[in-house]
Write a structure and sequence with these properties.
The structure is a homodimer.
Chain A lengths: L12 E9 L2 H14 L13 H6 L2 E9 L2 E9 L7 H10 L7 E7 L2 H4 L8 H9 L6 E6 L6 H13 L4 E4 L11 H19 L4 E3 L1 E2 L6 H11 L4 E3 L1 H4 L1 H9 L7 E3 L14 E2 L1 H11 L4 E5 L9 H12 L9 E5 L7 H8 L4 E3 L11 H15 L6
Parallel strand pairs in A: 4-11, 5-6, 5-14, 6-7, 8-9, 9-10, 10-12, 12-13
Antiparallel strand pairs in A: 1-3, 1-4, 2-3
């Protein structure tokens, strides 16, 4: 029999609200199993009724039917099991249980004393508005593409986007360090192009390179990009891990806005029965891990997210999480001019539009297309915001 | 119109075999879309018929119906789009397309000239056998648990496992740096306990700490563990990212076996219609990223993987991939003594048994249980291997 009754523990706990598919008996049994699987991963009957069983193990706080085959289980975990780190927190929330079917992480309930372990986004929504000197209305983001263009051609594009008033001009998420436009060649050229446009327009548009470097060069490349004058970093936490993004956000030597990109994260929201809810993944986790903006595929584009899912992300980026700042939702993925009215109606002004290919179409050119996009969005805003 | 006809490219390509759910017209349309989405992510009609369209863009090499609503599309990508890095290779294989439904990465077809960009596992199956001085028969792995025990109690367990002949004695995957058993306290104690047992038995059992550290401490913690005498590293690529694992495997200053753990990876195999196939995720990707052993939940345990899925992992860990070594499959997750005959029958001798809680049950004690497990496995092996 295993026992430990001498743990020095705080007694403080955070909770995860899971949705469990299955009938009531099955869902309850599996909820009780999650309490074990995510912590002690050990036959509970071999553990004495001690601190491990009463504190280290997850505790089923409530169990509520939402329907005949769907139940909600709130499970609390001791702060200590996370070692106050994001990787181990994620491990506790969904690590092993991701391997069992029919379990969805629906919501995180994180007391202020717990979120105090995390800095979250450095800028957040208000900070980005200050940086861009745009106290109201949507912000705008676009991407340098396609892969295969030279650094010079991408820098020319960046200049046109900046002339047109796009606040965050990012690399396409697939542009990293290909020989077509090497990282160390492309970044200075794009920075220079945008700075030239800024001098001409008086704006403060920013170049945001993709940091999808090998793990051993990741932080070094980000710092190098900052030294060259990058104005933000595009990060792919599905590939580099959420905690690598957090480190960039927390780094006072960088102090750059972080745009969180959803690459490779789709499988976590592919089924309503399992994975994360959109709100947790693209809202709460992105914020905890320091993203100032959460990019995701909007409804009505070339991806499959529903309007409801997208609006739940808005809830996630705004939800109460102690001192963790609210961030911008950044819906993209095939957005065109005709989507703008619906996007403004759905998101209001606190949104960062991510428009890519559409700004390349037609004869007017990128700069003029950007101006039209900004004007269109402004005209759709409620009069009170003009 | 975008054009670039001056690319210096090799002409060499690797392929991804996707399975696409949907009727023939829909699946073909979506296959053609993948070629764009995973590379240029740009309206193809705006690109001249040049090197970008003919080389940088993915190319649909074949399209084959597997049934009325399932099709197989083989898409080739230029080596150059991966920038010869694993993060960008993963981005190309499944990054954005993970966000669309009904696409599964079924198999990677990687020419030798491409796999030459990756070192893969340092030891592989043969290397681990040499390290353990076990030229035949299964290897054995177990986990120190439950979370909440002191470092001293975990070290006592490690001693018993080593006395019982468990080759790789790992931390439970959730044990990282909790105050119950801090990383820098636990590792030296467990190393010492196992070395004592090795002196007594003449074996060469190894302590394998979990490296689930914050990203900024990840490599430092791994090196520190090596300095203390750790004999392997348990790594969670679903949390730290596959490339962080690759860096550990590639690090000549470490030169330690890597045990790849499936935490957080379950959502990628939750649906047969989307994500990765078991064989790609737990076989090909684990190997490319340097794991010497791929841990996954076995059929018949407390998880949901089918026998067929598990055997496809065996195919993945053994498949032809140039100089990338074959590795051990390590099925675990609630394995008990009664599972052993079926596991030997299914896996043969090239398997690393991961048995946890079962070795704690009964009155015989851990050391004796381990001996019984080894004896049972040996007795089940075909006579030719005795």
């Amino acid at each position: 029999m295993i026992a430990n009754t001498s743990l020095q523990v705080s007694g403080e706990r955070f909770s995860v609200v899971y949705r469990i598919a299955g009938d009531q008996d099955d869902a309850r049994r599996r909820s009780e199993h999650i309490c074990i699987e995510q912590t002690i991963e050990f036959p509970a009957e071999l553990i004495a009724d001690d601190d491990i069983r009463g504190h280290v193990m997850g505790q089923l706080e409530s169990f509520t039917p939402l329907g005949e085959t769907l139940h909600e289980a709130e499970i609390s975990y001791a702060y200590e099991v996370t070692a106050s780190t994001l990787p181990q927190m994620i491990n506790v929330i969904f690590g092993n249980i991701s391997l069992q079917p029919g379990v969805c992480v629906h919501r995180l309930k994180l007391p202020d004393s717990f979120t105090a372990n995390f800095k979250g986004p450095r800028f957040g929504r208000t900070g980005l508005r200050d940086l861009c000197d745009e106290p109201k209305g949507p912000l705008f983001c676009s991407a340098l593409k396609p892969m295969g263009l030279s650094s010079k051609a991408l820098a020319d594009q960046a200049y046109a986007f900046a002339r047109g008033g796009i606040h965050f001009i990012k690399d396409d998420h697939g542009i990293s360090d290909q020989q077509f436009a090497p990282f160390r060649e492309r970044i200075p050229l794009c920075v220079e192009a945008i700075e030239k446009a800024n001098r001409e327009t008086g704006m403060n548009c920013k170049y945001v390179p993709t940091i999808n470097s090998p793990a051993n060069l990741f932080f070094e490349d980000a710092r190098w990009a900052k030294e060259q004058g990058a104005g933000g970093l595009l990060v792919l936490p599905g590939i580099c891990g959420f905690d690598a993004m957090r480190c960039l956000a927390d780094d006072d030597a960088l102090a750059l806005p972080i745009l969180g990109h959803p690459s490779l994260l789709g499988s976590y929201v592919a089924s309503p029965d399992s994975g994360y809810s959109h709100s947790v993944l693209f809202g709460q986790l992105m914020r905890l891990a320091g993203a100032d903006t959460s990019i995701y595929p909007n409804f009505g584009g070339r991806f499959s997210f529903s309007r409801e899912a997208c609006l739940s992300i808005v809830e996630g980026v705004n939800s109460e999480m102690g001192d963790i700042k609210p961030i911008f939702p950044s819906p993209g993925g095939g957005m065109n001019f005709h989507n703008v009215p619906d996007m403004i109606a759905s998101y209001g002004e606190d949104v960062m539009f991510l428009v890519g290919g559409a700004l390349h179409r037609g004869d007017a050119g990128i700069e003029e297309n950007c101006r039209k996009l900004r004007e269109l969005a402004a005209s759709e805003l409620p009069a009170s915001l003009h």
